[in-house]
Amino acid sequence: MGAADAAEAADAASGEAPRERHFLLTVAYDGGEFHGWQRQREGTTVQGTIEQLLERVLCQPVVLRGAGRTDAGVHAIGQLAGFDAVTRLAARDVRRALNALLPESVRIVAAVEHGRSIDPRREAWRKTYVYQLHLGDFLPPDRRRTFVHAGLALDLAAMRRAAALLAGVHDFTSFARAEATRRGAVRRLDAIRVLRVASGVRLFFTGSGFLYNMVRTLAAALLEVGRGRAAPEAIATMLAARDRARAPATLPPQGLHLWRVDLRTRNDDLPSARRCGAEVCEATAAPERTPAAPPLGVP
Length: 299
Description:
Elements: H1 3-13, E1 19-29, H2 46-58, E2 65-66, E3 75-87, H3 91-101, E4 106-114, H4 120-123, E5 124-134, E6 148-149, H5 156-166, E7 168-171, E8 186-197, E9 200-207, H6 214-226, H7 234-241, E10 256-263, H8 273-276
Parallel strand pairs: 3-10, 5-6
Antiparallel strand pairs: 1-3, 1-4, 2-3, 5-9, 5-10, 7-8, 8-9
Helix pairs in contact: 1-3, 2-3, 5-6, 5-7
């Protein structure tokens, strides 16, 4: 019996009349397999792939509302996506059916039902992104899709001093693509953490929202500080300039991961790292604590 058949059987066996249900998915994916999250006319995307399979499982068109529109090559371990459907299926049945049909590069980490329709993009009040840097003579093959080579060593103390200058409310014009700043470039960064991991460094960026290419450019600036090519205080100069030409070139997409999304709606029913135990579920560890480090290509 296929996943769609199993879902249909579960639907029929429930004995409950179909009704409109409001679901919220936690999605993990390898962005190297896709042309980004958002549905496109051409190219395979994460949103488009899940929507096609939801239509197959639920026998009706479904529109996913994602929390973030990650680019091609960018990964996620804590993407949130909401959708509505008239069905008897419970959230756990939807999750099982999707995971049976999805390619291995995409997993539904969790599925919960809410009492109303959820739009994660509009209801997100904080997001956390992670950028991963590998330290060593070369970039190992098993890290080529999830890390960027940063050399043999970095000055983490200097990077942390520079990161502290970025926290708070600032105009981030210098760190975003020009067209992304036309509606304003003021954003709030709640915290930036520089953490040492096995043969590498993880940069955690937590804030209310991010401009296009902002995280990858901030990571590039911190990398320049870590390599000794810029003083920590140079970050403040870049911010004050409000000039994209004053900041370094954007780093490649493969090092970037959408780690966690916090909604205004309480999401306590989403899996925590402690309860989940899966390789991607540590993404939902509370950012106020030291972030958990899931083995994203870490040997």
